[in-house]
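Q: My labmate handed me this sequence with no annotations at all. I'd like to see what the chain might look like in three dimensions before we decide whether it's worth expressing. Could you predict it?
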Amino acid sequence: MQTKQNDMNAHEAQAALSWLIEMGADEIVGEAPVNRFAVVAPAVVVAPVSKVEPARSAPSTAEACSTLEDLQSALLALENFPLKKTASNLCFAGGDPQSDVMVIGDVPGRDEDIEGKVFAGQNEMLLEKMLAAIGLSSGGVGLFNLIPWRPPGNRTPTEAEILLCQPFLLRAIELCGPKFILCLGGQSAQRLSGKSEGLLALRGKWFDLKIGKKKIRVLPSFHPSYLLKQASQKRLAWRDLLTFKEAIDAH
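A: Here is what I predict for the chain of 251 residues:
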């Protein structure tokens, strides 16, 4: 005896549905058949095109922001951005944005995500010691992140995530107008310098960041989270800090 659709029990119906989904069926068939040949498609009028313009990407919302508060509001208003949905807090700006010195990190970690700060926990404590060693403090410099939300499991941010967030950082730099930037981390160093070398090759070497008509001196070095895991690299970080201090004192 052939089994009719309405004779299936719940288990059989679920198994049949799973099979259909696996086979790629993603639409529901109506009770009454539809004659598709009888459906007349509307006429489409194609206007002649004299010249094909190249595709242009939509301007970032960061460009319309005139203050850091505007930037933060624009970030919080982003929709359909996975990192925003998985993170607990936005970790965008901190310290003194009006300072001549800015410190830029890569991405927030667990402590930063919990507290909503650019640097927090052990990272903040080590950064404070690093800055104090050259006569600065975390409260007296501008603090920013390339990516303001923590990636799940501290994974490396994707290219799409970086491209979305980078305009907000660049706009923040433009609005704050620092004279010197200490860039802590490989991701931020590569993005601001436009170079593909790893941090070990970039660290300790100055480059100029051009924003508008202004050139800002940038020095890459190690992020505190890296130094906490690789203590042997602190000697190189110390050299970088001395190089940074020398430039500031000479200014």
